[in-house]
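# nightly structure sweep
# worker-07 picked up a monomer target from the shared queue
# config: single-sequence mode, recycle default, output format = structure tokens
# input follows
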Amino acid sequence: MDVQRIDHKQRKWLRQIVIGSLASLAVLGLLYWVSTLDPAAPKVEQASLWIDTVKRGQMLLEVRGPGTLVPEKSVG
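# output follows
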């Protein structure tokens, strides 16, 4: 007794539909996951930032705080 087989073209067409459906579901799931993420960093106002060009020379730093600022190693 012969067993009826599905034609090769039908099998290929069915495989393409299944793979396309799975890929579409994966993309939709990824888009949903990305839409639920929080922003990477908080936004700040540009006025509160110090923006300048880099210059060669001595770097002077002003520090405020309680106590005395003493270097770890004294030069001299």
